[in-house]
Design a protein that fits this description.
Blueprint lengths: L3 H14 L3 H26 L3
Keywords: Membrane, Transmembrane, Transmembrane helix
Length: 49
Amino acid sequence: MSGGDASILPVIYRLLATRQRGLVVTIMIAGLFPVFVFLFQRDLIRKPL
């Protein structure tokens, strides 16, 4: 188990504490965007137009 996720949580909490929720949402979307792109492409491949 690597401590990568554990080290970023305090940063997110600090940003939430300073009411910079927009930045937190942007970081989360940036992290999840490749997953959505992958699922979307896989869906197109499974069901071609």
